[in-house]
Amino acid sequence: MIRARRSRIVATIGPASSSPDMIVTLAKAGADVFRLNFSHGAHETHAAVYAAIREAEKTVGRPLGILADLQGPKLRVGKFANGPVMLKPGQAFRFDNDPTPGDETRVHLPHPEILTAMRPGATLLLDDGKLRMVVTDAGPGYANTTVSNGGKLSERKGVAVPDVVIPMSPLTPKDREDLAFALRLGVDWIALSFVQAPEDMAELRRIVEGRAAVLAKIEKPQALKVLGPIMDLCDGVMVARGDLGVEMAPEEVPVAQKEILREARARGIPVIVATQMLESMISSPTPTRAEASDVANAVYEGADAVMLSAESAAGEYPEESVSMMNRIIERVERDPRWPELMQAEQSHDDDDADVLVVAAAGAAKSGSTKCLVAFTTTGATARRLSRERPLQPVLALSPDINAVRRMALCWGIEPRVSAQPDSLEVVTTDASSKALELGLVAPGERLLVVAGTPFGAPGAANLLRLAHAPAPARRR
What we know:
Helices cover 35% and strands 23% of the residues. By secondary structure, it is an alpha/beta fold. The chain contains 17 helices and 21 strands. It has three domains: 233 residues, TIM Barrel (Alpha-Beta Barrel); 76 residues, M1 Pyruvate Kinase, Domain 3, CATH 2.40.33; 117 residues, Pyruvate Kinase, Chain: A, domain 1.
């Protein structure tokens, strides 16, 4: 089942979409990767969904990626003695380490890391940014603030600190349990929430040990200050605009999105644009025009994937949401100006493998070349080709099913399992026959093959071959 588009779709699974039949429906509608949100659901539920996705692969005839999204630390205020309180602009309000229920003057903040990091002038945002407070004084176990934007504050509402690095790991005890479970399941990608520094990704990589690809969710302004070093430790990245929009001014989020996309594309790692893309389709069968434009803009920017959250997880129209996203992507990619806009920012490395890949992409610009084929052990060669954003499909052949499933997230790649070739003749024969079988070329049409010798050695792309799809045998 070949899709007529290059950008990929990530669909979050939830109560509205967790049945085996619905998972198959969403895959047929265009979902390439399924997100398991570990902020919700028991391990048994995620295990059943995982099994259903693996069964759906057989039905749709192509690999499906699975992304486990870890919850991360949820910072919340404590309880109030007499229910919600009303806070007025200009009033004083105190956060402290006293577990006594709060009132209109103070509340317990059960996160000593925040109090330790507080300094005068720092901002605290509560209840998704609805309330804003500025620290006037801080010391061991307390922070005094002045209310800037007031309103009703209820117990257990979230707290965000946009301009301070909080000295805590984004991997909570719950996350570590969920991570171990997800790795036992065999998920393809692990997404780490609330990344603040490169050390956060380094810690995740140490734990994962290559058993899955690792992805940073950029949703903290602090991460933008060290974006390059964070991405150097990532296999992929997500523009998590929901929480990023809480801690940043709305007008700053589109600029941050473009910066993250630019940095990810420069490194050749897949980038997902996420959150509120088709938000109105939670309860409506059609999106707003602004939402359709939002998805389209991400495609014009060259994003590897766009993501559905509540739309597919808990909405009334999960299938329609995936289908609509699919239609928007396909329409953008039919725009004659789309290649020019999408390829506006290209970058290359100068090692041997990248030089070869750039040459392959350049040679493929000939109108008579219909397909690029990459023989790859880990997926690295195919991802290098994807970074070049060639307009021809990239067929990635690997003997490793795990590498194949991870590539389901990457722009323009059609990944399939194939035996490791052991000769140049087999490279040419397997590439042309598989491309013909999948309908990527017609008999006699040209394709370009990228491979490496010695065969099976990771990162050894050093061979570019021209081939033609076999013509039907003549009858005697």
